[in-house]
Backbone:
């Protein structure tokens, strides 16, 4: 792996289903982030983690949860998907919370 | 509240120069970032300014005035591959990035 990977690339999901978006980085970055990007809006922070074992809430955390069991992985879980969670989701990482963020390729999620 | 403003869309001609402006009002300031995002792809880092003045990097330059809450990205010798959205983001006092909605740049031959 080189950089950040996300899976799946895209997904269509029925409302009410549970879904986990995966994110893995191999740059040994301490900080990781989940954003959603919607047409006409800036990227919005969902959750973040400044180091393994810690997480924090961003601007739009409701309906989402994260975990950071190790440095490399930062999965995002939708416990019960709703149509308003239809979006493009980007994972990003940085050396620390003050540094430049680098983005994964994104997951396009559609909730019907 | 925190706010980042940038034009929604701009059009320029191949070979020309274009300036994309960004104004911001945020809780604290720990630097301003510019990213490029091609359609259907991830944002990629272009530049970072934390002190007033101009930072030049090849065909791209970025300027910052902290007293005015203003930045611009200058693209010279435009190429068709520069057609993309350009995102302005400010790192606030909590070290979180606040993002503008992006400026879609259309390059015409």
Residues:
């Amino acid at each position: 792996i080189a950089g950040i990977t996300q899976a799946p690339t895209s997904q269509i999901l029925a409302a009410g289903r549970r879904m986990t978006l995966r994110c893995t980085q191999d740059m040994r970055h301490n900080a990781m982030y989940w954003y959603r990007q919607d047409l006409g809006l800036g990227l919005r922070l969902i959750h973040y983690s400044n180091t393994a074992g810690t997480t924090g809430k961003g601007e739009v955390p409701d309906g989402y949860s994260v975990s950071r069991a190790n440095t490399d992985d930062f999965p995002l879980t939708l416990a019960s998907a709703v149509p308003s969670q239809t979006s493009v989701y980007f994972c990003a990482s940085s050396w620390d919370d003050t540094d430049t963020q680098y983005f994964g390729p994104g997951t396009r999620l559609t909730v019907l | 509240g925190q706010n980042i403003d940038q034009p929604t869309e701009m059009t320029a001609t191949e070979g020309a120069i274009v300036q994309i402006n960004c104004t911001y009002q945020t809780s604290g300031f720990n630097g301003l970032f510019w990213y490029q995002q091609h359609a259907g792809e991830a944002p990629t880092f272009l530049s970072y300014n934390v002190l007033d003045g101009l930072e030049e990097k090849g065909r791209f330059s970025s300027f910052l005035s902290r007293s005015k809450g203003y930045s611009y990205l200058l693209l010279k010798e435009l190429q068709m591959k520069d057609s993309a959205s350009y995102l302005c983001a400010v790192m606030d006092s909590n070290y979180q990035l606040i993002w503008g909605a992006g400026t879609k740049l259309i390059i015409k031959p």
The mean pLDDT of chain B is 97. Residues 89 and 99 of chain B are 4 Å apart (CA to CA). The two ends of chain B are 40 Å apart (CA to CA). The interface with chain A takes residues 4, 30-31, 33, 41-45, 48, 87, 89, 91, 95-102 of chain B (CB under 8 Å).
